[in-house]
Amino acid sequence: MKLKSILITSTLLGAMSSVSHAESIVSDDLYKEWCLTGMSQELDGEVIPDKSNYNFTRDNKLKYQAAFFKQEGDFSIEGNKIKTKGMGNYKIVSIKPEKMVLYYGGYMHFKSGVCN
Question: Which residue of 5, 27, 51, 102 pairs with 115 in a disulfide if CB–CB is 3.0 to 4.6 A?
């Protein structure tokens, strides 16, 4: 019985640690300009090219630009989601310093920086 209690406690602590780690990754790596390089229906599927810019600012503004179209709005982080009003809600699949994948009707593949 004691072993079962230890395993449950260990699992809960591990889950809490993962959530805390994910939040620190978001705060460190999300807040910058990103180039949407393409979208795919499967995470490892064929990527259809795109070139639009997303800028996540530290004052929780999302600035989006594609060609001559621009849009800006507030965003918040709730768990593993980026929530906006009027610009959709994005599930965070992965965030690394140079690459990010979000999910919004398909997988959105980003690279750090502004699109050329």
Answer: 51
Query: Exposed, middle or buried: residue 106 (CB in 10 Å: 0-12, 13-18, 19+)?
Result: middle
Residue 21: exposure state from Cβ atoms within 10 A (0-12, 13-18, ≥19): exposed
Q: Which position has the token pair 């490892």?
A: 44
pLDDT tens per residue, range 55-105 = 999 999 999 999 899 999 999 999 999 999 889 999 999 999 999 999 999
